[in-house]
Design brief:
GO biological process, one term: protein transport
CATH superfamily: Phosphatidylinositol 3-kinase Catalytic Subunit, Chain A, domain 1
Low-confidence stretches: none
Structural class: alpha+beta
Number of strands: 4
CATH architecture: Roll
Function: Ubiquitin-like modifier involved in autophagosomes formation. May mediate the delivery of the autophagosomes to the vacuole via the microtubule cytoskeleton.
GO cellular component, one term: microtubule
Mean pLDDT: 83
Pfam families: ATG8
Keywords: Autophagy, Cytoplasm, Cytoskeleton, Lipoprotein, Membrane, Microtubule, Protein transport, Transport, Ubl conjugation pathway
Radius of gyration: 14 Å
Helix content: 25-40%
CATH class: Alpha Beta
Number of helices: 3
Length: about 110
């Protein structure tokens, strides 16, 4: 995973204190494309399921593809708040690192 400069986190938190810095990366063994923008500032009260929906729209996924996000090899519940996930799994550099993958369904 790519480590970011600490000042990016400090600038983000100073400007947007109600948001958390998230870096999302593609799992190496998936056929999904890389996402253009992999850094997000998301509201603390956003659900993981809402974040997954945003991710699917950015990746232009077909309806038959189920996709998942992982944090430290853990699949967070879709009803979990991003703020809770951040508090539990944030890295020492202050970013929440997530990984996305997919699985074919309905065919």
């Amino acid at each position: 995973m790519v480590k970011r400069q600490p000042f990016l986190k400090e600038q983000s938190l100073a400007k947007y204190p109600d948001r958390i810095p998230v870096i999302i990366e593609r799992y190496s063994r998936t056929d999904l494309p890389d996402i253009e923008k992999n850094m997000f500032l998301v509201p603390r009260d956003m659900l993981v399921g809402q974040f997954i929906h945003i991710l699917s729209s950015r990746l232009h996924l077909s309806p038959g593809k189920a996709h998942f996000v992982f944090v430290h090899n853990t699949l967070p519940q879709s009803v979990s708040l991003m703020g809770c996930v951040y508090n539990s799994f944030k890295d020492d550099d202050g970013f929440l690192y997530m990984c996305y993958s997919t699985e074919e369904t309905f065919g």
